[in-house]
Amino acid sequence: MVREQHAAIEGRSHAGDARGATEPSVLDGSLPRYDLVADGAASSVARRSILMMGMGLLAACTTAPTTSSIFLVPDPIWPDPVRPGGPTPPVATGPAPAGSTSTNIAPDLNAKAVDGVIPRARWARGTPDTRDLNKMIVPIKWVTIHHDGLDSPMIETSMDATAGRIEWIRCGHRGRGFSDIGYHYIVDREGRVWEGRNLRWQGAHVSKHNEQNIGILVLGNFDIQKPSPRQLDGLRGHVRKLLAQYKLSRGRVLTHREWSGAKTACPGKHLQTSVNDARRKNTW
Fold first, then answer.
1. pTM of this prediction?
2. N or C, which end of the chain has less CB nearby within 10 Å?
3. Which residues pair with 43 in a beta bridge?
4. Distance between CA 254 and CA 16 in Å, rounded?
């Protein structure tokens, strides 16, 4: 069995610990350093860089990770800015095998949205490892909503800052043994919809329930912040589009915590409340 199809890849929870501690100022130089696990290499990056990664300070991912199962149950599922933790996968050596990920890509800052979705070329600095991806089984039956759950809330609204955060998450997923970022779509604070993992491939976002399931990530930690009105508008609009496109009923939209066996707070209490409200008001 391919590891992303049936392995328990989600960990105990990817919602963080919701401590909500006051952040040091990015202006006073007090932000600590931490290690970002990225595509099999540990890069020491100033935390300030992560908060300003839209300005090009985030280091790109480098080498492909090992396929060892020890990296399939991370907690959280990508490096956390306060609690990075976790083992560093060994660095791959030698020439990359056919189908492996390329990590020497400059994002196309001129890439335009297609059908309302910003293409991954606008943000990604690496391609998927196609050796270990499952083709998406059709018909699509489910849509699942997530938050990123990082301890640092998402407050930036610029295209570059958003692109940086998505790439950071991709690096974390790759560093934990995933073939690519696990989600198919990402909704930012301005309500823009970004392409994640291409829909031709099965996602990696709900353990044992990735088949025929589209994953949508809403940027932010919604245990410690609220989704913005534009973000909710963008989410509702995209869900409506998917329901129409795949002829799904409203009952086919779930949050991560609503799946049987999911031991997670995702998508956070505030986004869960917003999803419940959308159901009640039938705004899907």
1. 0.71
2. N
3. 36
4. 20
Q: Which tokens is 34 given?
A: 């931490």
Say whether the peptide bond before residue 267 is cis (omega within 30 degrees of 0): yes
Do residues 149 and 205 lie in contact, with contact meaning Cβ atoms separated by under 8 Å? no
**283 — pLDDT class (breaks 50, 70, 90):** confident
In whole angstroms, give the CA distance from residue 43 to residue 36: 5
Strands 185-187 and 213-218: parallel
What interhelical angle do 229-245 and 269-281 show, nearest 10?
A: 60
Q: What is the DSSP string of 192-220?
A: -EEE-S-TTB---SSTT--TTEEEEEESS
Amino acid type, 132: D
Instruction: Give the torsion sign (CA, 117, 219, 217, 241).
Output: negative
Task: Quote the tokens at residue 183.
Answer: 């989600």
Among the listed residues 229, 216, 230, 209, the one whose alpha carbon sits nearest the alpha carbon of residue 267: 216
Integer Cα distance of 134 and 254 in angstroms: 22
Rounded to an integer, what distance in angstroms lies between the CA atom of residue 141 and that of residue 108? 32
Which letter does DSSP use for residue 262 in this model? -
In order of their start, the domains of the chain are 3-22+30-93+102-281 (3.40.80.10)
- Give the closest residue to 205 by CA, choosing from 163, 255, 157: 255
Q: Distance of alpha carbon 48 from its chain centroid, rounded?
A: 20
- The string of pLDDT tens digits covering residues 188-246 is 999 999 999 999 999 999 999 999 999 999 999 999 999 999 999 999 999 999 999 99
Which tokens go with 131? Answer: 């050796």
